[in-house]
Amino acid sequence: MSKILEYFSWIESVTTLIWVLLTVILAWILAKIYFQTGTQNRYFGIGILLILLIWMFPLYNSHFHNPGIGEIGNVITLMVTVFYKIKLSKYSLQLSKLLIPQLLWLCIAILYHGLLWIDKFLIG
Question: So where are the chain's domains?
Answer without folding.
Answer: 2-123
